[in-house]
Amino acid sequence: MEWTELTALELGAAIKKGELSVREAVQGALDRIAARNSAMNAFVTVTSERALERAEQLQAGVKDADSPLYGVPMAVKDNICTRGVPTTCASKILDGFVPPYSACVVDKLASAGAVCLGKLNMDEFAMGSTSETSFYGPVKNPWDLTRAPGGSSGGAAAAVAAGLGWYAIGSDTGGSVRQPAAHCGVTGLKPTYGVVSRYGLIAYASSLDQIGPLCRDAADCAAVLDVIRGKDPRDGTSLDGQYGNLISGLTGDVRGLNIGLPVDCYGDGLNGEVKAAVLAVADALKSRGAEVVEVSFPVMEYVVPTYYIIAAAEASSNLARFDGVKYGWRAQEYEGLRDLYCKTRTQGFGPEVKRRILLGTFVLSSGYYDAYYRKALQVKAVIKEAFDKAFQWCDLLLTPVAPTTAPRLGESLSDPLQMYLGDVYTVSANLAGLPGLSMPCGFDSKGLPIGAQLIGPHFGEGQLLNAAHVFQMDTDWHKRVPKGGGPA
Amino acid sequence: MRWETVIGLETHVELATRTKIFCSCTTAFGGAPNTHCCPVCTGMPGTLPVLNRKALEFAVKAGLALNCGITRYSKFDRKNYFYPDLPKAYQISQLYLPIARDGAVSIRTAAGDKTIRIRELHMEEDAGKLSHDPGTGLTRIDYNRCGVPLIEIVTEPDFRTADEATAYLEKLKETLQYLGVSDCKMQEGSLRCDVNLSVRLMGSGELGTRTEMKNLNSFKAIARAIGYEAKRQIKLIEEGKRVVQETRRWDENMGATYAMRSKENAQDYRYFPEPDIPSIELSQAYLEDLRSAQPELAEAKRIRYQAEYGLTEYDSRMITSDSVLARFFEALVELGAPPKQGANWIMGEVLGALSARGMEPKDMKLTPATLARLIALVGDGRLNRNTAVKVFEAVFDSDGDVDAYVKAHGLEQVNDDGLVRETAARVLEKHPQSVADYQDGKEKVLGFLVGQVMRELKGKANPQSANRILKELLTQ
Amino acid sequence: MDVTPELVEHIVDLSRLELGPEEVRGIAAELERVLGYMDVLNRLDTEGVEPMSHVFPVKNVLREDVVVPFPFQDWVGLLAGAPETDGETFLAPKTVE
């Protein structure tokens, strides 16, 4: 095996032992980006010079480093602010925006010795499930360049899968970490709402957004989350996870763990190959001593509409600040203030963003608020309750991540409603603020990766990661490497 | 009078916190444009608001003082609209669960006493400042004020006259200043008022169509605007026309209100719960602590000054009209000054000196200790009142040392009866005609003779002693 | 529900966007379809359910009232990324009368 195929923890250990320098690791990643990114379009910005400079600085501290990720090259989704480096949300309207601050996660990772290689492509403002709505063009799936990598953290998933970095930081509002992780064959985690500070994450839907890692395996996810989690005084909704060090929690023991299979998640609309692969996860964990129970989750038909009403409403407000006055892009020609607003926003936002702004404005507008927005907040309470009930019977839930494997490029955009429905398995964890993990559990007949999702109760990250870790001890789906996007 | 005016007030008050409501920028007034700003208060993407503990405390204190019920579980909401002074394009405010509700304020006008009901008090953030640049024809945007904490206090439509509205605002200002939650400076915009006004036939139970007037930045402007707008509406109705529900701007120079463009009237603010700020849950203990720490307000002080210190109602009202003055008075009393004398000094010399200098009580350097010392010297008979006034003038501006000044200028009162008797004898010798007049029963010449003795002794004699000794000598 | 072009135009206006007549019709049809799908929520009886805005009870997160100026640097000052400034204020087309 090439050292470019090591996990982040393995690479960190190799750097610590002096088997290779930080610079070699960074240069290796930059070489792979140079060779493969043009085919995949995973990066919006590559910060080669900064990364190499940083590698030199870090090398001196290798001996004293106490972070297991010290010196490991990684990349950040482009909706996460990086001081002095353009942050675009893959939108024209933020063209030229260079934030004077870094997101909390970026600061924390820097303190742990991470080397940032650049900013990752995504759906514009994280609105999309395919990473095709980017102003900078679609991301392509390294397993099949004619297919989408999933979204919205598609650049992140594709980059990690193709070895353009050892891990990536994404964001997940309705599945945006977990679903691209599944489509690209990597492991992704959306933590409990609040466990990772949102300071510096450009908001899509504030009550649902959560930052999470995309990695080569569950152990790496644990290591990254150990670095980025914790209460941040700049984010009032952040909190300390009620658990200790996550890496040391990977005991490899799942005896007595109760795994719930929500029967409502395995019905119509689920691709047969996906279903079989996900159910095989239950069998694998069972053979390690876990117990599997069927549970009821009778709210599946409500989760997507509830999610889209709430997310669109918040988005319409969060994206109102992009008006061509304070930062970012401004329309060239306009007459007066109102026209400046309208022209800048109309030309600066792509069609999917505008679609959601309009939907969100509608559901909040006078006369429709109660019927849509308020109703959705009520259903959200019902969905939360359904989870509480399910967790009376089990420790975590096993579900598919997406109904199918990666779609062909262009296939989804033609029918927005159909695309929204594809989020059916992931959005409920966001609505209820629960942790959700996506991991590779097989391949379909087209050679595309299949993902399985584990959802836990609040602060259940430890159990999710340990269960995934146990599964990955017995399987090697997560070790498969795509050959797409040019020479490896 | 056939018509009755019905008025409700919405008052925005800036809270006197050091930092803004959701970030750590200073709230200091002035400053070069856009220097009291950060990514949070200018709405840069990815930034988040975190509530200022003091702003919450001040809002609750104000609510308690206005006799409101405090909302134990409250939240913030977003009010969405596009305007360049609002960098996030939404204002964080409170619609559904304001921090305080259902209060009452009693006011007094020439027409009598009245209670004004407070509908609600909520917290929100201030907007930035726009100014027109005539050179370029563009609008300049300064976000220094953006994010300064405000409370908005909304009354029921309980006012019937401009007098009542003014009395309420005076009372509100006095109360908030006493609490220390706001300095209520209208000229710096820290107290701003919108007026909702309608008219109806006397005796009618229904409310007429109301207009809202904005941009009122003095009590005088508010009174004038109410007068103008009531007349305008009455005239419309009497001409058989309709009052349009709209927002109108007061033009101070024209002395008139005019309608704002209809686009600005057609608003749909799309309020929804602010997801970035967790809810506020106030414990009984928190409220009790604040309640017991509430300072005594002007009304209570006025009553106490009369009952406890025997001050007149007028003096009590004057002294309590300013919290600094009231604190000054109470400190005097605590330092041992007889309350009535303390009050006399404040009403006379202190207010006189302030007004002569065009100063506010809070700008005064003179400390209660200095004035208390002066009063004590007069009380001990070591300084007479007239001399004391001179000393007061001398020490007022820099809070000088009374004892040092008296000593340096040899002003201590002559309490040596022998010296006064010697001097009095000499005066009587010089003024035989006066002596004769006195003995003829013209007793008022005594005053003249006392004056002469005081003059000989350069004003340092105790006038009572001079009086007594002169009488003794004249009747011998 | 019936989504009329007038309703769409109103929403477009509130959102400060511009759509041509063709686009308005397209959005109206699309919105009608999406909202029709969302009507599924009406099958669920939520009478008496408290709307849940915050998913779990973090509360009373407060900051101390201490001034901390933001450490801007010349190359990333507040105005550095603005489309139009006069060096000390942001500039917008005429707004105030």
3D shape of chain C: flat
Distance between the termini of chain B: 74 Å
Structural class of the secondary structure composition of chain C? mainly alpha
Assembly state: heterotrimer
Share of residues in helices of chain B = 40-55%
- Identify the strand order in the major beta sheet of chain B: 3-7-8-11-1-12-13-14-15
Fold and architecture overview:
Chain A is α/β, with parallel strands linked by helices and 488 residues long. Chain A is 38% helix and 12% strand. Chain A has 15 helices and eleven strands. In chain A, strands 1-3-2-4-6-5-10-11-9-7-8 form an eleven-stranded mixed beta sheet, sandwiched between helices. In chain A, strand 10 (436-443) and strand 11 (449-455) form a beta hairpin. In chain A, helix 5 runs parallel beside helix 6 (178-184), helix 7 runs antiparallel to helix 15 (461-474) and helix 9 (300-318) packs across helix 11. The longest helix of chain A has 22 residues, at 369-390. Chain B is α+β, with helices and mostly antiparallel strands and 476 residues long. Chain B contains 16 helices and 17 strands. Chain B has helices at residues 53-65, 162-179, 219-238, 262-265, 284-293, 298-309, 313-320, 323-334, 339-357, 368-379, 385-396, 402-408, 417-430, 432-439, 445-456, 463-475, and strands at 3-14, 51-52, 69-70, 73-74, 77-80, 90-93, 100-109, 112-125, 129-133, 138-142, 149-155, 191-201, 211-216, 247-251, 256-259, 272-273, 280-281. The longest helix of chain B is centred in the middle third of the chain and has 20 residues, at 219-238. Chain C is mainly α and 97 residues long. Helices cover 29% and strands 5% of the residues of chain C. Chain C has helices at 5-14, 21-38, and strands spanning 62-63, 90-92. In chain C, helix 1 (5-14) crosses helix 2. Chain C is flat. The two termini of chain C are 41 Å apart. The mean pLDDT of chain C is 91. Chains A and C meet through helix 9, helix 10, helix 11, helix 12 and helix 13 of A and helix 1 and helix 2 of C.
Set down the secondary structure blueprint:
The complex is a heterotrimer of chains A (488), B (476) and C (97).
Chain A: H1 8-17, H2 22-40, E1 43-46, H3 48-59, E2 73-77, H4 104-111, E3 115-120, H5 154-161, E4 167-172, H6 178-184, E5 187-190, E6 210-215, H7 218-228, E7 258-262, H8 272-287, E8 291-295, H9 300-318, H10 336-348, H11 351-364, H12 369-390, E9 396-400, H13 416-421, H14 427-432, E10 436-443, E11 449-455, H15 461-474
Parallel strand pairs in A: 2-3, 2-4, 7-8, 7-9
Antiparallel strand pairs in A: 1-3, 4-6, 5-6, 5-10, 9-11, 10-11
Helix pairs in contact in A: 2-3, 5-6, 7-15, 9-11, 9-12
Chain B: E1 3-14, E2 51-52, H1 53-65, E3 69-70, E4 73-74, E5 77-80, E6 90-93, E7 100-109, E8 112-125, E9 129-133, E10 138-142, E11 149-155, H2 162-179, E12 191-201, E13 211-216, H3 219-238, E14 247-251, E15 256-259, H4 262-265, E16 272-273, E17 280-281, H5 284-293, H6 298-309, H7 313-320, H8 323-334, H9 339-357, H10 368-379, H11 385-396, H12 402-408, H13 417-430, H14 432-439, H15 445-456, H16 463-475
Parallel strand pairs in B: 13-14
Antiparallel strand pairs in B: 1-11, 1-12, 3-7, 4-17, 5-6, 5-16, 7-8, 8-11, 9-10, 12-13, 14-15
Helix pairs in contact in B: 2-3, 6-7, 7-9, 8-9, 8-10, 10-11, 13-15, 13-16, 15-16
Chain C: H1 5-14, H2 21-38, E1 62-63, E2 90-92
Helix pairs in contact in C: 1-2
